[in-house]
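This protein record is not my work; I was only asked to verify it. Where you disagree with what is written, explain briefly why. This is what I was given:
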Amino acid sequence: MNYTVVSFFAGAGGMDYGFSEAGYKILCGVNRNTDCCETHRNWSNATVINTNLLEINIEDIPQADIILASLTSVSFSKANPSKQHSKLYEEEKIFQVITHCKPRAFVIESTKAHVSEISKFYEGMDYKLYSKLLNTKEHGIAQNRKIWVTVGIHKDIDRKFEFLNKSEELIFVKKVINNHDVNNIKNRMKFSRKSIDRHKVNMRYKEVDFNDIAPSLKAYRLYRKDLINVAKDCYYSLSWEEAAAIQTFPNWFKFSGSLSSKFEQINTSFPPELGRQIAMQLKEVLSSSFGIQSSSSIFIDNIPVIEKQLIKEEENNVEQDTINPKNIDLVSNCCIYPKENFNRNVCLQPLNDYDKSSINFINQLESLSTGNEDAYSYHNLVFECLNYIFKGSFIRGKIEKKINNGRKKVDIIFDNYDETGFFAHIGKRYNIYCPKIFIECKNYSDDPGNPELDQLLGRLGRNTGWLGMLVCREIKDESKLLARCKDILNQHNKYILFLHDLDIKTLVKLKEASDDEGMREFFSVKWDELIM
């Protein structure tokens, strides 16, 4: 189920992006920093509001399943009473928003001092609170940073939230920044050796050991001892790209603003990977309470409104297209299919959170039957597999996306942000324009034919790109399907690659093994078969 999120003090959107990666839909982000808002807009489709939270009318805040907030941006320092006073008002406003909007859950990043304040604010409310001090290095992040996190779960959800277990594997700096340009000086800050020596006592500056975990980016100025400019008697910091990689932002992530602004956004950000892990834990809790009324789904007698409408229309033999479009978003996990493909049992259950492992994906593929009844499940499983296989390269994935002013739908669509893999390679070497990746899924027992290829061909164009993929269960005559794809290339100059279940199984195994070269070789073979 695509739970919805509204975020306050969102910053660059580190926690928001982590929730997005876990399948949540970010509706709105609020921040008073202009650069942070621009950065958030660079990656999200959310409404980003550049203002002080105190100036927002609570009635104007969209309803959402989850509210996220960070209360670390201004300290409780008594040396600055005006900021302290403002911060107290902001905390109270968050309290008012949660009281008014009644989300299923909320997640707040805070400091130790804030935890007790949060407990006072929410004492007697309709939420059970869970607070814990997390260390990022214990959760697959190459940084030794401690973060207080408080999770509130609505009391009607009869399940306890449990913070994620510690990872057994430590991730060192060299693993996450080994692909970055060491000689790029313009994206680094310059620190004089005198400043570094002067602040050795208070440890304001710290050297980065590539064979170890980085100190907290938020607490120190980190410099690379291997980058020394003898003539200018100075060292250089990590580049902002390297700092972003340590914080677990993907390589394609674009930060707006000056160099110092980029560092400020990155260093103070909530690590996206930690946000994703919390989001996955939270989803397990929420999925157990599917019948509870929420902001993104309206239920009557535990049956979604849109489901009742579909049943009624089927009884009256009314075509699917006559459904009032205003009701389509009432249930965020109900993708609308032609009535002959509609599986009521699937829509009444939340989508499973597939365990991200090759064995689990393979088991899921092998357990699904072919045919219209399981078409919905197959589309969603393929979407989950591709999200896993192309993590960091394909982003903003959507299922059943309407295009051409709603006249057509595409099964799956991604934005292509690949920088080093196969899809970057064909763009650079073959000049193939593919900003969007269109994917059609066919849960057939027979091979796809010309109608399926023509359907995908109709999705491609000069604005969306020239490359699409067809995914099906199996292909008995690959040479025949390949010949059809070659005809499309020769006649229309459009490229269609096809995958089947065995290919998906191979790719998830390669991804699990972090075999990037193997994945490039896999698609290169497919590409050579098509163009040669």
